[in-house]
Design goal:
Layout lengths: L3 E2 L10 H9 L11 H14 L3 E5 L2 H12 L5 E5 L3 H4 L4 H6 L2 E5 L9 H7 L10 E7 L12 H13 L3 E5 L3 H8 L3 H5 L4 E5 L10 E5 L1 H13 L8 H13 L4 H16 L4 E2 L9 E6 L6 H10 L2 E2 L1 E4 L2 E5 L6 H16 L15
Parallel strand pairs: 1-11, 3-4, 3-5, 5-6, 6-7
Antiparallel strand pairs: 2-8, 7-8, 9-10, 10-13, 12-13
Helix pairs in contact: 1-11, 2-11, 3-10, 12-14
The site of pyridoxal-5'-phosphate (PLP) has 12 residues, from α3.
Length: about 350
């Protein structure tokens, strides 16, 4: 049976061109700064997002943590959204390993935080308070329907940060999805921030790797923090070779994933017993709710699984689907057909079990 896996864009596999590039990659020891393929990728990545320097890290989670450690000292505070990946899904790494305290502010449905909420969270100068050091944004915003943040919004947060002497970090795991959805050069989305990460291994289909970008001075310090975390790797050219193809060949096609997500969402909106807000769907992530007592969430998942369709169960009756490379228009038709059949079947309902929260 053919599997249509919509749990995440992290399930994408390297393309044949990436496998070929991995095979032929020129290699050296990257901890000694001698891996030519990694050096080339880091240069290309920094230029692409308009930053002086870049650093390859194994994962987005490590990239965000490296940036947190580079910006903040122990006991300092980071302002971030209450729905952000860094707050919810990175195992509390910044506090566990960096002694950095999160100060959460509500995320609006479009992934923004209100400027007045951010400003209210900035600590005054008082020996009782932790020092605020950093504001973190997420673009696209995973939990908020994969919403893209606009350059105007990002610039306004950065202006507020400057006014208070703070830095801004962007969790741009899917920053290229944002740029493609908004129809802008990615540099517009990164011009006013101090550091960012983006992932090579999500919609861009590389098997491993994320990139940290910032000023040369920032990246020198980040390189040290990556080493602290055990993220100094040796012949990283095998990762960087695929990452280079990801940047060169896989960005523009993200538009196809966005179109597929839109069509999927519009189809779900027609299925009785399912509820979806179409207004917030601009990229490759959609969330929908089961609003029928004809079947339980577990039954929905199990029946789709039997038809070869996988999705993510995020809350008792909420689900996520993510479109990506390898998911074609016909797959969207197949998923909609299967969902319609599953929702039409009439079975006794049971208890909706709490979902394990995954990313
Ligand atoms: C918005 C966001 N940031 C960071 C990450 C972490 O990336 P990784 O899985 O490479 O650690 C993810 C992973 O899904 C994500 O969605």
């Amino acid at each position: 049976m053919e599997i249509i896996d919509l749990r995440s864009d992290t399930v994408t596999l390297p393309t044949p061109t990436m496998r070929e590039a991995i095979y032929h990659a020129e290699l050296g020891d990257d901890v000694y700064g001698e891996d030519p393929t990694t050096i080339r990728l880091e240069k290309m990545a920094g230029e692409r997002v308009g930053k002086e320097a870049a650093l390859l890290v194994p994962s987005g989670t490590m990239g965000n943590l490296v940036c947190g450690l580079t910006h903040c000292a122990r006991g300092e505070e980071v302002i971030l959204g209450n729905q952000s990946h860094m707050f919810l899904n990175e195992a509390g790494g910044m506090s566990a390993l960096g002694g950095i305290q999160p100060h959460i502010v509500p995320n609006q449905p479009d992934g923004t935080m209100r400027l007045e909420d951010i400003e209210a969270a900035i600590r005054g100068d008082n020996i009782h308070f932790p020092r605020t050091r950093l504001i973190c944004l997420e673009n696209t915003h995973n939990r908020c329907n994969g919403s893209p943040l606009t350059s105007e919004y990002i610039d306004s947060v950065a202006a507020l940060a400057r006014h208070h002497g703070l830095s801004v970090h962007l969790d741009g795991a899917r920053i290229f999805n944002a740029a493609v959805a908004l129809g802008v050069n990615v540099k517009e989305l990164t011009r006013s921030i101090d550091s960012l990460i983006f992932c090579l291994s999500k919609g861009l289909s590389a098997p491993v790797g994320s990139i940290v970008c910032g000023s040369r001075e920032f990246i020198n310090e980040a390189r040290r923090n990556r080493k602290v975390l055990g993220g100094g790797m040796r012949q990283t050219g095998v990762i960087a070779a695929a990452g280079t193809i990801a940047l060169e060949q896989m960005v523009d096609r993200l538009a196809e994933d966005h179109m597929n997500a839109r069509r999927l969402a519009e189809g779900i909106a027609q299925i009785s017993g399912l509820s979806i807000d179409l207004t917030g769907i601009h990229t490759n992530i959609i969330y929908f709710d089961l609003v029928s007592d004809r079947l339980t969430a577990d039954e929905l998942i199990t029946r789709l699984r039997k038809k070869g369709i996988r999705l993510l169960h995020v809350r008792p009756s909420r689900f996520r689907m993510v479109t990506h490379h390898g998911i074609h228009s016909e797959d969207i038709d197949a998923v909609l057909l299967a969902l319609g059949e599953v929702m039409e079947s009439n079975t006794p309902s049971g208890t909706v079990k709490a979902a394990a929260s995954r990313t």
